[in-house]
Design goal:
alpha/beta, Rossmann fold, 8 helices, Diacetylchitobiose deacetylase, hydrolase activity, acting on carbon-nitrogen (but not peptide) bonds, in linear amides, LmbE-like_dom_sf, GlcNAc_PI_deacetylase-related
């Protein structure tokens, strides 16, 4: 059963606007940088929402948290330029802070109603071993905000809007693959733009991991397309794409 076709969802690669909500300033590039660059190259409007300030993303004790926030804001802009981001929203919750899912949901509703994107993208909070509280809270808050934005809640925050789809990256349950072979170098460059996080001795190892994972996704994409002998010469990114209807009282969504 092609549930996406039944629900009238267009392919992720065809959307003309996408709102990408990331817990930290580098998550969108790591999880979906190639796809976002591909979308932007095709004329899609790419909007970023960065939920936390990333103040605890470094291990260099000589740098103050406030200084690191400024560094990461600059890195966020540089990476966004590489990918093709047209607008940034920074919610500025404290990294690993005592904010709630409800706080994030309430902040996202007016943005969703204002931008009215054809797709929303975020990290998958239900990945089996995801232990980072920011990823857990933000992913769930995004899903809740998508539902709430189409209700009468926060009536003073714009007209209700029904987001057509949510694409979760860093997922263990992908149902959609995007060929990013032509944008692989852009993805890596946009990740490395976050120098405070990646310009270190671990970068070569991380590149090997990113390449291995992307080649696996490319093979899975070809299998899903019915290719008799899948190749692993290209690169792909993986997503769990769901409609709002599948985000409430729909346990079968796990297997779709």
């Amino acid at each position: 059963m092609d549930i996406q076709r039944i629900l009238g969802m267009k392919p992720l690669t065809d959307v003309k606007s996408v709102l990408c909500v990331q817990p930290h300033p580098d998550d969108n590039e790591v999880g979906a940088g190639g796809t976002l660059a591909r979308l932007a190259a095709n004329g899609c409007l790419v909007y970023y929402v960065t939920v936390t300030d990333g103040r605890y993303g470094g291990s260099e004790s000589a740098v103050s948290a406030e200084a690191l926030v400024r560094v990461r804001q600059a890195e966020l802009r540089r990476a966004g330029e590489m990918v093709g981001v047209v607008h940034h929203h920074e919610l500025s919750f404290e990294d690993l802070g005592n904010y709630s899912e409800s706080d994030v949901m309430s902040a996202l509703i007016p943005i969703l109603r204002d931008k009215r994107p054809e797709a929303v993208m975020t990290v998958d909070p239900w990945a089996p071993y995801e232990a980072h509280p920011d990823h857990q809270k933000v992913g769930r808050a995004v899903a809740a905000a998508v539902l709430a934005a189409n209700s009468s809640i926060h009536a003073d925050s714009g007209q209700p809007y029904n987001t057509p789809m949510v694409a979760f990256y860093a997922t263990a349950y992908p149902n959609t693959y995007v060929d990013i072979t032509d944008f692989w170098d852009v993805k890596l460059a946009s990740i490395l733009a976050h120098e405070s996080q990646f310009a270190n001795d671990e970068w070569p190892l991380l590149v090997q991991y990113f390449e291995h994972q992307a080649r696996q996704y490319y093979g899975a994409m070809q299998m899903a397309q019915g290719v008799a002998e899948p190749l692993t010469a290209g690169f792909a990114e993986a997503f769990k794409v769901l409609s709002p209807r599948q985000l409430h009282f729909f346990p079968a969504a796990l297997h779709m």
